[in-house]
Amino acid sequence: MAKTILITGATSGFGRACAEYFAGAGWQLILTGRRSERLEQLQTQLGVAVRQIISLDIRDREEVFEKLGSLDDIDVLLNNAGLALGLEPSWDVNIDDWETMVDTNIKGLMYCTRALLPQMVKRNSGHIINIGSTAGAWPYPGGNVYGGTKAFVQQFSRNLRADLIGSKVRVTILAPGMAESEFSDIRFKGDVEQAAKVYQGVEALRPEDIAETVFWIVSRPAHVNINAIEVMPVDQAWGPLAVHRQGK
Ligand code: NDP
Ligand code: 8X3
To answer: Would you give the DSSP letter of residue 89?
Structure first.
């Protein structure tokens, strides 16, 4: 029987690429996101592979439990929905942006996990893949709360594994570096020029690269748990620690 993957944030970027990739591999899909017209387009495009589309704002705890809580046969939960807002220094940031990132990247991911994990534990089978970020491990100016939310995703993933010892349920944190999607359009609130500059002259990761990685992770034998993967484009690497020199 075909396996089912539930993808949060399937309307764009990584989520959409994963939907296309898993459909091509014969999986059944449950696709979620807020933009229902995009979910409908995907359903038309991917046909019978799409078992269900669910228009859902993962920040809404009641809605998440109401819409996901009764699903009892999900093989893979891809906790992908998320966003960064702004790149301002912490003292100058819009506090609403911080709250939106916490509500989405931390609380939304928690709600989806809590809604779907019981059925996995009950069936003693399943896999949760959480999309983190290199920003969760490597700080950069303006990354403040976004990086903080992704550090949460990393440690939450490890702690889930600690809870799940003794069960066959798998958990993976996948942390991509720079990838071209709508991510920067959202971060810079529609300033397309600023968003385009992020990828100028760089061969960034493509959403398809992440989809292939997710598929590889879930295709390992059932006794193998990929704990963590960090993926960067070749054009990206770490820099030296910043040093402020007096008088400069
Ligand atoms: P996109 O902006 O292309 O996609 C983000 C997806 O998240 C959309 O489908 C959006 O759907 C969904 N989403 C956002 N907020 C909510 C919400 N409140 N409820 C439900 N769905 C929501 O970005 P990416 O594909 O690049 O990002 C996917 C994930 O990867 C994010 O968690 C991001 O932080 C992470 N990431 C991205 C990197 C990059 O460089 N692009 C690198 C590392 C990690 P809709 O608007 O329809 O609700
Ligand atoms: C997205 C990658 O470097 O823009 O998570 O934070 S970065």
So the answer is: -
Domain-embedded: residue 72: yes
Residue 97 within any structural domain of the chain: yes
- How many domains in the chain? 1
Q: Give residue-wise pLDDT tens across range 112-142.
A: 999 999 999 999 999 999 999 999 999 999 9
Q: Which residues lie with the beta carbon below 6 Å from any ligand 1 atom?
A: 8-9, 11-15, 33-35, 56-59, 80-83, 104, 108, 131, 133, 176, 178-179, 181-183, 186
Distance separating alpha carbons of residues 187 and 179, to the nearest angstrom:
13
For ligand 1, mutation pick of 7, 11, 61, 64 (most atoms within 8 Å of CB) = 11
Is residue 143 included in any domain, yes or no? Answer: yes
Q: Model confidence over 71-93: pLDDT tens digits?
A: 999 999 999 999 999 999 999 99
Phi, psi (rounded to 5 degrees) for 22: -70, -35
